[in-house]
Each structure stands twice: as C-alpha cells, then as structure tokens.
C-alpha cells in the first residue's frame, strides 16, 4: 500500500460542479468524503468510488479518484467485484435510501453477510428526491406530502442500522450531514475497520422534506463505547430513536477474501474441465 500524505481534501475534488438543490445535505457529505480521503493518506489512483442511481449517487463524479456510476441498486455488487479483483484498493460505495434499500435492498443484505472489506455510505433523506418527492423505504408511514401517497404510505419504514446489524455488517455508524467533520471521522474509521462497514448519514432534502431542517435539533451523540457484541448492539438499536450519531457497532468478524490463484492460459483452464 503506497501512502501519499501531502494531498488535501481539495485535491480529491473534481472540476465537475455539483448540481444538487441548494441546501441539500449531500454537499456536506461530499465535503466529508474528500476530507476522509485526504486523511487516509492514499493516492487518488488507489481509491475506487462506486455508486448507483439517484441524487446522492452522482457523488463519484465530484471526486478525483477512480469512479464508477453503476445502474440502479447495483453499486454494492460492482464494489464487491472491484475489491475482490483488486484487494489493494480502498473501495467505497455510495448511494441513497432508495437506491440502497429498495431496488438495492437484496444486494445490501448480502453485502453485509459476505463481509467484503469495503465501506458503504448511504445518504438517507427519506424521500426519492431525483424523481420529485415520492416516499422511499425509510419514509415514515404517516408522511402525506407526496401526491402519490396523499394519505401516507401506511407501511413501516426500513430501519437501516438494524437491518445492517441483522444482516451481518461488521461496522455500523450514523452521522448527520450538518456535522461533516464527524461524518469524515466515521468514514475513516469504517475504512480502517476490517470487513463490510456501513455509514448511515442523515442527509436532509430541504426541497421535498423542508421539515428535515429540524434534524439539527434532534440528532445527538451516542453514549458509551460502541457495542462489540451483536446482542448488545441489537438491544441498543431496539430502543434507538434513529438520530443517535457515532459508531453503533464494531464487530470482530474477519473480512471475506477468497483465495487468489495464479493466472492460467485458456488451454490450461480447458484442460482441467476435460481431464
């Protein structure tokens, strides 16, 4: 692993101007991501940043590292392939609550279970902002400000941290876009922690969920050390209000990395099947 500590957060920003709405929390997440990349001390070409589809999934284009803008819900499948093929790279995936927990929900659960050594950042605004304000998997059942669900969804929302823990994620943290320095710290801790790390970021969408401006008054730091036992973490999360920030779980499972084999010619591969 080659280190280069002279790079700053600005060095990890591309020349592409973000096109998020004014006041979007994703601007702060972008700032946190570039700060984290600078703190890691890695070269830009040693980092791969993968995303799916949605407002937040535009984020790799705004960074100056290797990036891949994948199809809807498939960021984790791509990221896992990158990490398994190139274990020397720092692999980060990013997306939103819709991309990661709806169409990508199955990939999310199995990425947690497989425990490949990569980090997944989900920017959760509890709404589909890119497609004009529909309810998402994390939307409360009584939110009725969408034309598609004027009486609310009536469906219990996904609890991202609990789902990640139940599915086997080895590191779970929650941050608030209003505190990008803490988000940057959580990203760095997640990258350094072996296995699959899940960073849940509360990132307000002030265009379709203006009431989320009040999140700054309800987020609060967690008390005590992070749980290392699944049972203890599950007990804490069972009473969590969804606004606790910090590291929520730091597991001890070893990261998954299958044995790597030397390259073989096509004739050698065919011979194994024909013998």
UniProtKB/TrEMBL annotation:
Protein's UniProt name: 2-oxoglutarate oxidoreductase subunit KorB
Gene name as annotated: korB_6
Pfam families linked: TPP_enzyme_C
UniProt keyword Oxidoreductase present: yes
E.C. number(s) listed in UniProt: 1.2.-.-
Residue ranges annotated for the Thiamine pyrophosphate enzyme TPP-binding domain, each copy included: 53-201
Organism: mine drainage metagenome
Keyword 4Fe-4S belongs to the record: no
One annotated GO molecular function: oxidoreductase activity, acting on the aldehyde or oxo group of donors, iron-sulfur protein as acceptor
Keywords from the UniProt entry: Oxidoreductase
GO biological process terms on file: cellular respiration
